[in-house]
Amino acid sequence: MSDMHLPSAAGGKIMLVGLGPGSHEHLTARARAAIAEADTVIGYVTYIRLVAELLEGKEVIKKSMTEELDRAIEAFDRARQGRKVALISSGDAGVYGMAGPTFEVLFQAGWTPESGIEVEIIPGASALNTCAALVGAPLTHDFCAISLSDLLTPWPTIARRLDAVAAADFVVALYNPKSGRRTRQIVEARRLFLRHRRPDTPVAIVKSAYRPKQRVEFTTLEKMTECDIGMLSTVLIGNSNTFVRHGLMVTPRGYRNKYDVESGATHSGEQAGRSLSTGLTGWLAGLHASGLGAAELAAQHRLPEDYIAALLAEAPAPDDTEEAAA
């Protein structure tokens, strides 16, 4: 990157294009237009193949899987020459995609938005969204994504994240779950989840979503490592309320906590449009009214004792008092 600080030609542009799953019917209109606008298209060879018929007459630069920084450097170099570059990623460019490495390269070179090179991020559906659409509605409540790739992230960091989200009852999408060399990571992820989740927790494994070799498999947390999992797979692990019925994986949003789902009527003690009786306001009122100490309440709610102690030390807010009276 020794020459990256040289002045750039005017009019250069980098478009960070998310292709979604890769099928043309799931490519956004803006992504298609950006590829058409580009003079140069840069990407991992597999992603280039997904849009090959859109690349006629363009300079095409293919890179290998581990050459993300090289792709970003090539894009910046072409943009400095005044070219319009489409740097493509499957899914969304900002979700385990090329947006982050590109900005790292740009900032290292002293780029700013006023430098004469325009940067546009064009979103696409991430594997998390496309895989969820194929199996039902597993992400209707709180969820997160964790990559099991330890090529750039230390395993203890990944393990801490896995343990934390398993304990917090998130629905979790595991990216990069397994490769030819990385086979134990998914086994350790399962081990950590089983510390907090039932063995029969629903799991869906989706391979090559919306591509010719698409494969969907439903299993459980206990048995998921027996399934066919690879680098083209995304593993969706349900939370404590997720269920599978009629071949669909669903995570309830929580309406049954407040409403009778058949009639739509609110349960006794609940009000439409207001927080649950066990929402923040009602819960705070309950803490103050319980007569219990911070240690006992912390154990009961599985929350830090110093957090509970700080809440108990605060005077109840007027809303808390009203909630307790109700």
Account of the 3D structure:
- With 326 residues, this protein is of the alpha/beta class.
- The protein has helices at 29-37, 45-50, 68-80, 99-108, 127-135, 155-167, 185-194, 280-290, 294-301, 305-313, 318-325; strands at 13-18, 40-44, 59-63, 84-89, 118-122, 136-137, 143-147, 171-175, 202-207, 215-220, 233-237, 243-245, 248-250.
- Helix 6 runs parallel beside helix 7 (185-194), helix 8 crosses helix 11 (318-325) and helix 9 (294-301) crosses helix 10.
Tally the beta strands. Answer: 13
Report strand %.
Answer: 15-25%
Mean pLDDT: 91
With strands numbered from the N-terminus, the spatial order across the biggest sheet is 3-2-4-1-5
Describe the main β-sheet briefly: 5 strands, parallel
Gap between N and C termini, in Å? Answer: 66 Å
Overall body shape:
globular
- Could you name the ranges where pLDDT drops below 50 across 5 or more consecutive residues? none
Tally of contiguous helical segments: 11
Structural Rg: 24 Å
Structural class comes to alpha/beta
H and E string: EHEHEHEHEHEEHEHEEEEEHHHH
In which range does the helix fraction lie?
A: 25-40%
